């Protein structure tokens, strides 16, 4: 149970801290730094001047010995007596009146609303406490079943006997004798005490008899001081009453002024907070409008893209359908045309065959020879003429090409013969070292090259070369 109460208290403490933080944040929504309000600090008793926090660096209990009052009037008994002698009667005799008990009823005898609410709150609090601590309710009496108690016999009625007058007088006499005995005993005790302290009483009588003038002066001074004290007390009382009235008036004026200032400050803070909330709401509205416009633009762009995609897809589908239909129609037309052409060709071939068969059956040998002659004349003779014309052109061009070849290859042949002659080789082998170059002697590879590279010495080799190269067929020299 205690652990549960501790947990509940801890949760309540954390809840209060969180609420305080939220209140502090709510007071300063904009997060601006504020200067210290001295008037507010001194009007609220929970502020730093009245209750400083130890985490700020102030410890009220430190150096407590400095504030201990050390005085002879408080540390000694004689000092206390002297201090009490100077105190006025208004301090030792309080004049305050006891507070009257608050009436719970009105003049008409009805219960006041505040008293009724207090009673209801007390009942609710008691119910909550009973539920909290699980107090067992007393057993209620049975509603229908009741126990019959046995009727006990009543005791006899006491009777007072009237005493006799003789006994009553005797009892009164005994009481009087007891009072006399007690009084006499007290007188004897006082006499014994007086006899024991007789010397002190005699000493006091002598001293008081000797100091009678001083006693009178002391009494006069005492009366004067008491009168002065009473006057001072009255003056102080009047001044305190005046100060109280002045302080009350000043307090009322200051309270009204501070109340007005605090309300104006709260109104200004609320106005600024409302303005800040309005600015935040306007900013959020603009941001949402911008987001909504951007989202709408994106949606419109996406819709246009989707429409374009759909249009292109439909267009592609339409093109595919058109191309498919076109291909089908063309294929059908080609197939039908091909079939019709085949049928037509076959029909024409059949007709031509029939006609040719009929003509062959009807024609004679002379007609067949005429047909063969016409075929020879139309095919063979034109081809022979073409061949003869080509040969004539080739013969006409050959002599020009042969002359060009002689001009080009004449000098090269003489240079090659001189290059491969033995005298020229010896001259080159002697002259080259004089120049500073390496001697060039023919090796096996050079000899093989010399043997491979030979000038065309006969007309048959030139003709063979021209025949091997089809590109210069037309550039062959003419035959002589």
Short description:
This is AMY-1-associating protein expressed in testis 1. This protein is 74% helix and 0% strand.
Structural commentary:
- There is one protein chain.
- The chain is mostly helical and 480 residues long.
- It has helices at residues 2-27, 38-43, 72-75, 77-86, 89-92, 113-133, 165-196, 198-210, 212-362, 365-419, 422-435, 444-452, 459-468.
- The radius of gyration is 76 Å and the shape is elongated.
- Residues 427-480 have low confidence and may be disordered.
Task: Set out the fold topology.
Elements: H1 2-27, H2 38-43, H3 72-75, H4 77-86, H5 89-92, H6 113-133, H7 165-196, H8 198-210, H9 212-362, H10 365-419, H11 422-435, H12 444-452, H13 459-468
Main beta-sheet annotation? none
Helix content: over 70%
Helix and strand run:
HHHHHHHHHHHHH
Please tally the β strands and state the result.
0
- Report the C-alpha radius of gyration, rounded: 76 Å
Instruction: Please indicate the percent range of residues in DSSP E strands (runs of 2 or more).
Output: under 5%
Low-confidence stretches: 427-480
Overall mean pLDDT:
78
Shape: elongated
Through-space gap between termini:
144 Å
Summed up, the helix count is: 13
Give the class from helix and strand content and strand pairing.
mainly alpha
